[in-house]
Write a sequence for this structure.
């Protein structure tokens, strides 16, 4: 049971990291988490080659440790799906986050719901795997029918708990996005 709980928790954790990378009109360093740059022949996250700071609510400042990385970081941001044009002052890359339009907010909410639904599917797949495992154990004589039913109820309660957590995460992120 602990193994299946852990798998369900991983689906929640993955969803949380995806939600963190969705920008809500405010500068959030986590929008850079998925971006990689070439650094001495290795694909490295931007936080691994630069300091990322938030000077104000709508601005991110990326200060590379090596001046040669400014162009690489700029290129990675332009090629990403962030939809933000980077500026540079020769030493730093500056991102100005525009106010989100109503249409863009609604689009992001749809995206959030899609990602939430994918997390729910992952959780339900874990439930299915757990129930199949219990049926096999029951057929092999390792569990009685009553034990199997009890375990299936535990699996269902865990599934319900994690799905409720996904719903809450969707609700919180939606509220964050729709707040102007």
């Amino acid at each position: 049971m602990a193994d299946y709980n852990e798998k369900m928790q991983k689906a929640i954790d993955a969803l949380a990291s995806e939600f963190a990378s969705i920008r809500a009109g405010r500068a959030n360093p986590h929008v850079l988490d998925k971006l990689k740059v070439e650094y001495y022949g290795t694909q490295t996250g931007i936080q691994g080659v630069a300091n990322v700071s938030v000077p104000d609510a709508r601005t991110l400042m990326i200060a590379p440790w090596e001046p040669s990385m400014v162009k690489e970081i700029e290129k990675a941001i332009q090629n990403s799906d962030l939809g933000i044009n980077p500026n540079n002052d020769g030493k730093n890359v500056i991102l100005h986050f525009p106010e989100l339009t109503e249409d863009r907010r609604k689009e992001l909410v749809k995206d959030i719901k899609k990602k939430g639904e994918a997390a729910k599917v992952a959780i339900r797949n874990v439930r299915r795997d757990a129930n199949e495992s219990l049926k096999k154990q029951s057929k092999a004589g390792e569990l009685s029918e009553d034990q199997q039913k009890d375990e299936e109820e535990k699996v269902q309660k865990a599934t319900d708990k994690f799905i409720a957590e996904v719903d809450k995460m969707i609700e919180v992120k939606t509220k964050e996005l729709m707040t102007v």
